[in-house]
Amino acid sequence: MSETTQIYTMRELSMDTPRVMREINERGRPAVITRRGRFVALITPLADAEVESVALSAAVAASQDRAQLVGEERV
């Protein structure tokens, strides 16, 4: 059985952001945000995607101070 896409209004998102974000992450599926009945955004859950480590690795690799950040050079 396929699950239906969860839809939230801008008002719901604005008035109760913590609940909306928690529900999206708990479901583990993207949700659509509407404004006046039209789709305006798609929120994708990242809670289990290990995004933090990927983002941090990319930031360190792109940094001009990479050698200092990873301990290869002293300040």
Write the layout of secondary structure elements.
Blueprint: E1 6-9, H1 10-15, H2 17-27, E2 31-35, E3 38-43, H3 51-62, H4 66-69
Parallel strand pairs: 1-2
Antiparallel strand pairs: 2-3
Could you give a short description of this structure?
The chain is of the alpha+beta class and 75 residues long. The chain has helices spanning 10-15, 17-27, 51-62, 66-69, and strands at 6-9, 31-35, 38-43.
Give the total of beta strands.
Answer: 3
List low-pLDDT spans: none
| Level-1 CATH class name of the largest domain | Alpha Beta
Strand portion:
15-25%
Query: What count of helical segments does DSSP give?
Result: 4
The CATH architecture assignment of the largest domain turns out to be 3-Layer(aba) Sandwich
Spatial gap, N to C terminus: 58 Å
- How would you characterize the largest beta sheet? 3 strands, mixed
Q: Estimate the global geometry from the Cα principal axes.
A: elongated
Instruction: Write the element-wise H/E pattern from the N-terminal end onward.
Output: EHHEEHH
Radius of gyration: 19 Å
State the domain count: 2
Mean pLDDT: 84
CATH topology of the largest domain: YefM-like fold
Structural class, from helix and strand content?
A: alpha+beta
* Helix-residue proportion: 40-55%
InterPro entries: YefM-like_sf
Protein name: Antitoxin
Family: Belongs to the phD/YefM antitoxin family.
